[in-house]
Write a structure and sequence with these properties.
binds ligand F0G; 13 strands; 6-stranded mixed beta sheet; globular; about 475 residues; Rossmann fold
């Protein structure tokens, strides 16, 4: 390992405590803050310009050049090539989405949808999981754990099933994850522990349990995970022929992606590989809006990672009111995002804004994304709903170039999709009405007919 040029470092510059890359840590031992993976770039081989990565395309038969994560490994050089774990993640697509652009009101600009649902487990998590597995493999870990709203667990279970490097232990909030995701964890053979509680409870428990039992934690408090997720931004740039877009819009849950995107761009700028940073918009569901509340309403800003009284005060308030996160976008049903401080750093560097969108807005945007192409799960559509709101406010300009990250595949949550399109009012009310969704303005309803040739022909002629 290139240990003299790679290390882990506390995100608080005043602390700056460093740890070896071989150490397993989720927090700074001195001040308790989050850790970054840090590099002495001057000692490492780097491309002169981003377009130099194109030379690798002709070697796509080699697993490390095929991977959409590791073909950029000069920008996440924490492991030697022979320890890298890849299962072909990151073969994703940036779709120029003209119809969805009209929906969000981007009349003169461009909307691009970054389809992370095309990853092997159907979500962006595989970018980070391949990086966490690589680190775990270098240190010889045998068991890995996560708390999850479903996608991290699906990804962990899949990497365990394919690589056989580790055994998976998964903590989920009971009844809190969608069937698509639960079925993945079960099918891939992971030990699945359903805790009577929600994600925030499961997250707190898994940290204790990993420490106690020495199990490798793959949640995004693991700094190596975020190194993998930086590559989502490299692929966006690659698809735009290395031009920096005006906006990156991403749903916010545990805030790993937004943190990773900020780190990616801060580093690219520092290395002279881009000349400017895009702006960042992080979109919360209004039923799980901690970041929105803190950043937009209470003015909390990046303060070199220092603990902030306003944050502690807000969490105490949540406890006093026994307030739980609640949204149809179960992937982002999180009230205590573990990467808050890193996300504040990203918002600071990328002139960020935060917005909250209702479940109604999420489901309508999701239907539009589906009608426009490959579709996505509810949490992902928060990015499109958020972009629409920011255009209406005039914060995103109508002629700008905007990239919304679609974090998870459409098939992850069939219950929400079918409830939106259903003709069964009880089903609609049970799944969506209970969340404040009143209408399904873009529903594509199935047409019920008798098993009779003439009736079927009539129905086709009437509706097509
Ligand atoms: N979108 C999807 C589809 C997700 O699964 C998640 C997070 C997010 C967005 C939020 O991303 O945490 O980086 O802000 N899912 C986690 C999980 C929490 O357990 O699968 P973030």
């Amino acid at each position: 390992m290139m240990s003299d040029s790679v290390y882990q470092r506390c995100i608080d510059p005043a602390c700056g405590q460093t740890y070896g890359v071989e150490e397993v840590r989720t927090a700074c031992g001195t001040c308790g803050n989050l850790l970054d993976v840090a590099y002495d770039w001057a000692k490492l081989p780097l491309p002169k310009k981003l377009a130099d990565f194109e030379h690798k395309w002709s070697r796509r038969h080699e697993p490390l050049e095929y991977s959409g994560v590791w073909r950029f490994r000069e920008l996440l050089p924490f492991a030697p090539d022979d320890r890298i774990v890849t299962i072909g993640e990151g073969q994703t697509l940036l779709q120029h989405a003209r119809d969805v652009a009209k929906y969000v009101g981007l009349t003169g600009g461009e909307l691009h949808l970054q389809y992370e649902g095309m990853n092997p487990s159907g979500s962006f998590k595989d970018n980070g999981m391949s990086a966490a597995f690589t680190h775990a493999h270098t240190i010889g870990a045998k068991r890995a754990a996560c708390a999850s709203t479903g996608n991290t667990s699906a990804s962990l279970a899949l990497y365990c099933a394919v690589t056989k490097h580790m055994k998976a232990v998964i903590f989920i909030g009971s009844g809190k994850i969608s069937y698509g995701k639960l079925s993945q964890a079960l099918d891939y053979g992971a030990l699945t522990v359903q805790i009577a509680g929600d994600f925030d409870d499961a997250m707190a428990r898994v940290q204790e349990i990993s420490r106690e039992l020495g199990i490798y934690l793959v949640n995004s408090v693991n700094p190596f995970r975020l190194e993998g997720q930086k590559t989502i931004m490299y692929r966006v740039l690659e698809a735009l022929r290395w031009e920096v877009p005006d906006w990156i819009v991403v749903p916010g849950g545990n805030l790993g992606n937004s943190s990773a995107f900020g780190k990616a761009f801060i580093e690219l700028k520092e290395l002279g590989l881009v000349d400017r940073l895009p702006r960042l918009a992080v979109i919360n569901a209004s039923g799980a809006n901690t970041l929105y509340e803190l950043y937009e309403r209470r003015g909390v800003r990046w303060d070199d990672g220092k603990p902030q009284p306003a944050v502690c005060g807000y969490y105490e308030q949540l406890d006093q009111q026994s307030k739980r996160a609640s949204t149809i976008a179960s992937a982002i049903e999180i009230n205590r995002p573990v990467n808050l401080n890193k996300c504040l750093r990203a918002l600071d560097a990328m002139q960020g804004v935060v917005r909250e969108v209702t479940d109604q807005e999420i489901m309508d945007a999701k239907a539009q994304v589906g009608a426009g192409g490959l579709g996505c799960e509810p949490a992902s559509a928060a990015s499109v709903a958020g972009a629409k709101q920011l255009l209406a406010e005039g914060i995103i300009g109508r002629d700008e170039r905007v990239v919304c990250i679609l974090t998870g595949h459409q098939l992850k949550d069939p219950t929400a999709t079918v409830a939106y399109h259903t003709t069964d009012q009880d089903k609609f009310n049970e799944v969506l009405g209970s969340r404040g969704v009143r209408r399904a303005s873009f529903a594509n309803r199935a047409v019920a007919v008798n098993n009779n040739l003439n009736e079927i022909i009539q129905a086709i002629q009437l509706y097509s």
